[in-house]
Amino acid sequence: MTLDSDPPPGPVGARPAAPLVGLVAGPALCMALAALPAPEGLGQEAWLTAGVAVWMAVWWLTQAVPLAVTALLPVLLFPVLGVAKAADAAQAYAHPLVFLFLGGFVIALTIERWNLHRRVAITIVSLAGVRPDRLIGGFMLATAGLSMWVSNTATTLMMVPIGLSVVAFIESHRQDGMPPTLAQDRFARGLLLAIAYAASIGGTATLIGTPPNAFLAGYLAQNHGVDLGFARWMLLGIPLATVMLLAAWLLLTRVLYPAEGLDLARVAAGIAAEKARLAPPTRGEAMTAILFAAVALAWVFQPLIADVVPVSDTAIALTGAVAAFAIPVNLKKREFLMDWDHAVRLPWGILILLGGGFSLAEAIQTTGLAAWLGHLVAGGSHLPL
After folding, report:
1. Burial group, residue 289, by CB count within 10 angstroms (0-12, 13-18, 19+)
2. Can you name the residues that pair with 111 across neighbouring β-strands?
3. Can you tell me the distance from the alpha carbon of 366 to that of 85, in angstroms, rounded to the nearest whole number?
4. Which terminal Cβ of the chain has fewer Cβ within 10 Å, N or C?
5. Sign of the CA dihedral 108, 111, 116, 118?
6. pTM
7. Among 285, 281, 286, 287, which Cα is nearest to 327's?
8. Residue 256 gets which letter from DSSP?
9. pLDDT in tens, the chain (385 residues)
């Protein structure tokens, strides 16, 4: 992500054209559908649900308002339109997967607060060696590993400065006035793209890696009775993420941006120096590592634990989150692993976004809109092309 891609500044309060068009088009399309009779075989409630879905889709696509604000439309409109009672529409915002992400976010913020993620990243990169392809692989492994537990954005924001420092270190050792060599240019491009791709790939490996995972798990649970728990997700997610990570690494280092002949001995020395500058692990950092390991292991072995204690993935996440607020680091200073001053940075918008998606999905299912669309698609598949 570069600042150069941002649009030029405009007057205060000015918006691009697309959001303004979407701001009007969303409710206009919803009202137009509501004014028309429902298609044959579709109830009025389902037809109104389709109108709300179109409204939300337009606002989400054009970002007419913040994404989380759009996600509030179901709890606002469904009771007004008679699609669902307010309590039923709001129930999805307290979906267990929403609280699973809430607990995961608290644990991730705890990791960030004590800089445990930086130590892990620098350690992995320092073990990668001096070959360009291995160094890029080390960055990808560190990024993907962190992105399994910390948000993709936070992981990228943490890893990009480390990657840029490596690129800057290479450029600082070329002769004055000389442009970067082809190998240096390829390495820089490949490294930054590797971080971006690895963050996205790592987010697919665990249930809390990225919000779309929760949407899929919630949909399968609500509509097909398939319970994708944490351990079950990892059984599929980790192998797929490993294959995608290896494929991305080969594509970047062998096909798109090979950087043979680039001497990274000095870079390795710089990374080693960065590792040496890391302070000894603090009490908070060590206790965070223990808490994280305990929660991760509990998620992995949840099916076995559930045979003894009826505990879910959500309960494990919330236990870890509450424990972070309760475990003292320094009792004299009243310092704990997590406090509310840091917790306010929680991505509340994502939690609302998840709830809005679940509420809309529930209405689509219960009103019969999903079944009608399924029959429509199935019937259309026999049409001649």
Report:
1. middle
2. none
3. 13
4. C
5. positive
6. 0.70
7. 287
8. I
9. 333 334 444 444 445 778 899 999 999 999 999 999 988 888 999 999 999 999 999 999 999 999 999 999 999 999 999 999 999 999 999 988 889 889 888 988 898 888 887 787 777 767 776 678 888 898 898 889 888 887 676 677 667 767 776 777 666 655 444 455 777 788 888 998 999 899 999 988 888 787 788 778 887 877 777 877 778 888 888 999 999 999 999 999 888 888 776 766 666 677 777 777 778 888 999 999 999 888 888 887 777 787 788 888 888 889 999 999 999 998 888 999 999 999 998 889 989 998 999 999 889 989 989 888 877 776 654 444 4
Asked if residue 275 lies in contact with residue 123, where contact means CB atoms within 8 angstroms, the answer is yes
Q: What is the DSSP letter of 336?
A: E
**DSSP-assigned states of every residue in 141-188:** HHHHHHHTTS-HHHHHHHHHHHHHHHHHHHHHTSPTTPPPPHHHHHHH
- Going by the DSSP 8-state scheme, the letter that residue 329 receives in this structure is E
Q: How far apart are alpha carbons 166 and 132 in whole angstroms?
A: 11
The single-letter code of the amino acid at 184 is: Q
Written as one letter, the residue type at 137 is G
Give dist(CA 31, CA 58) in Å, integer: 13
User: What are the residue boundaries of the structural domains of the chain, listed by start?
Assistant: 17-94+349-372, 115-281
- Determine the 3-state secondary structure of 328 from DSSP: strand
The residues with which 336 forms a beta bridge, in sequence order, are 328
**Does an H or E element contain 330, and which?**
strand 328-330
CA pair distance 46, 37, nearest whole angstrom = 12
CA distance 271 to 249: 21
How would you class 373 by CB atoms within 10 Å of its CB: exposed for 0-12, middle for 13-18, buried for 19 or more?
middle
Q: What is the CA radius of gyration of the chain?
A: 24
Bridge partners (DSSP) of residue 328 are 336
Rounded to the nearest 10 degrees, the angle between the axes of helix 116-126 and helix 152-172 is 50
> In this structure, what DSSP letter does residue 206 have?
S
Long-range residue pairs from 225-229, CB within 8 A, at least 24 positions apart, any chain: 229/302, 229/303, 229/312, 229/313
